[in-house]
Structures are given as structure tokens and as C-alpha cells.
Amino acid sequence: MAAAGACSAESLADAIALAYKTNPNILGQRAVLGATNETFVQARDGYRPQVSAQAVGTRQDYQQLTSNTVSALITATQPIYTGGRTASAVSAAEADVLSGRETLRQTESALLSQVIQAYADVIRDQEAVAIHQANLDALSDQLKETAARAKQGDLTRTDVSQTQGYVFQAKVDLTSAQAQLDASRAEYAAVVGQAPGALEPPPTLPNLPANLDQALATGELGNPQVRASQYAEQAARLRTAEARDQRLPNVTFEMQYGYYGPQSPYTPNIYPKDTVATVTVTQPLFAGGTINSQVRQQIQHEAAARDQTEAYRRTMVQQIAQAWSAWRANSQNASTADDEVKANAVAYEGVQKEHRADLRSTLEVLYIEQSLREAELERSSARHDAYVSAANLLAAMGLLQAELLVPGVNLYDPAKAFDRVRWAGAVPWEILPSTLDHLTSPALKRLPPPPSQPVSPAGP
Asked: How far apart are alpha carbons 33 and 96 in whole angstroms?
């Protein structure tokens, strides 16, 4: 039975894999990214032809004259050059897609932080329940021994009452600890998708930095919130260019094929089908100030996006510095708590022996017993806090990703999802207007891939 229980124990990797697959927050963000992918397809519509068909039938009665006419036309319009507007719009949409991918990384990182927090909470609270249960058992045994010695006259009724007070307090503490464990189990089920079973001890988190400078350098390159904002800033810059491009000429090619003539009788030789080809060059001269207003508006959006990037960068620095300090402090506290537990355990064992030899009072035994249990609770809490703060540090650095924590997990690939719709509706000749438009449009600058491990700072 013990072997079967060990085989069915749930690990942190199991919890992460299940949450990554089923959590509604991450599934919803993937759907949002899928909708953003479609904006790229819609933006490329500016390179592609528009074809429409129109049929009109007319009957006119004027005094004693009657006429019946009908027209049927097929019209195809192909943009040749849009002044760079379409190229800027396409690049801005691609920047939105890349920003959405980073936002998805941020959602994944936040989810993994919640999973690790919930996992560590359950383990901490399970240990707390076990400690309080052991405390109650030890105090109950102490109460039996004290009562027996009081009957023999070795101890007084006061000693029994003191022990009873500690027993009652231990029962209250155990009930509170059990309630806290139930709350943590409910939180775990909400985040992971199932109630926790027998949880294995959490593994050591990988890719922790050697120093604060390394953590900050990694966060500068990998923090998903900062990277998403950098792409959003580029999208705003490209939309400013799109607004300016409205001042440039627009060239289109249009072809019409159709028939216009009497509905009845129909005489093909007199009313043949017509084909008309037209090249139109449109140069805006005066737009009532609308174009200039739109340019100024987009410049303000660009400035706001730039300031937002700086705000996220400062937040990233703050989060890394706080998580680093918390991780180092809690790790040191956990190590100190280990020594404290060892010292109190030795003291408790010695006081018990001295109590049996009437060298120590019952109150001293109860006091050192509580000191030992408090030290055990502090150690459990410090280990929990150190582990959670380490996860928070990795999240701020951009290294808390499923592929780095659970190498075998079936990952969602946003690039493949984008490629499935990228060329929807494409035509072979759209390369011509695309090439012409990009001559006057700024290019999108892709960021380097986020690091998969801590990096050293480039300079002071």
C-alpha cells in the first residue's frame, strides 16, 4: 500500500502540466491571441484585389413611351501603391501579434506562479497540521503523565491545570490549521483543476541567478511585460507612419466587364459586352485638417506607449529587487530555523528527562515543548516563503516558463497558430504592391528571443 501511494503521488510538474493544459485564464489568452492573428490577415487586405458583381434592371414609363434597361457588371480593383499605408498597417498588426505573444507568456508566467504558490501553500499547511497534531499528542501524553503523578502526590493540581490549558490551546491551533489547509486545497483546485492528492516535496527551481545584477540583466531581455510593451510601442510608431502616409498618392487599377442595354429585345450585335480598364492616381490636396490631426493623435499614442514601456521597466526592476531580497532573506531564515529546531529538540529531550527526575517544573516542560513546535512552524513557513519568492524572482526575470520547468510538457506554439492563418486569402501578385509600399514604410524590428537562463550584465 505504501508503494502504491508513492506511485500515485502528485508532483509539481504534474500540477504545472495540468494547469497549463486546462486553466481557463491561459486558454482564454490563447483565444485572444488567435483573434489578434486575424488582424494581420485583415491588414494585408490592402494589397489584394476586390471583386464585386452588380446587376440592375430598370423600367421607365413616360407618357406613352416605355423603356426596359438592364446592366450587369463585374468590377475588379487592384491596389498598386498606397503610399506605404498598407505596409505600415501590416507591420503594426504584426507588432500587435508579437506583443500578444509576450502577453501570453506573461499569462503563463502568472499562472505558474499561482500553481507554485498553491502547491507550496498546501505543503506548508499540511506540515502545520502535522506539527499541531504532534503537539496535541505530546501534550495529551504530558497531561496523562502529569495527572498520574499528581495522584501520587509528586505534582500539584496546578500542574495539571497548566497542562490542560496547553492541551485546549493545541486543539484550537489544530482546528485553525486544518481550516487553513482546507482553504489552500480549494485554492489549489481552482488554479490546477483538481484537488491535491499526496504531494511530493517541490523540486529545486532551475535558473536562479547568482547575483542581483544578473537577475536585472536577464529581466531586461526576458521580462514578458516589458517585451510586450516594446512591441506595442513599435505598433504605435508604425501607426504614426500610416497616418503620415495618407498625404502620399494612391494608385489603383480597375477593370470592369459587363453589359448595358435594353432588357427586351436583347440584340447582341447592337449592345455588345464592354471591357473597361482604368488606372487611377489620387493625390490628397486638402483634407480639412483631418490628416494632420490624425498624425498628431498618433504621435501622442506613440509617446504614451513609450512612457508605458519605461513604467513597465521600472516595475520590473522593483519586482526583481524585492523578490531577490525576499528570496535571500527567507533562504537564510530557513537555514537558521533548521538550527533552531535542532537546538530546541535537544533542549526538549533534556528537559523531559530532568522533569522526570524532578529537576524541572511542568511549566518549563510545556514552555520548551511550545518553543520546539513554534520553531518547526517557522522553519516550514520560511521554506515556503523562500520557494515562493524564488518563483516570483524567476517570473520577473521571464524565466518562469513551462518549457523550462517541465521539459516534457506539450507546449502551445503561437508561431504555428499564426502560420495557419498568415497567408489566408493571399494572391501571387500581391508582392508587387507590397514591395512598392515598403519602400516608404518603416520596418518592424524584432526583439531577440528571450533568454532561457540567466545572463550576465553587459556593463555597469
From this structure: 9
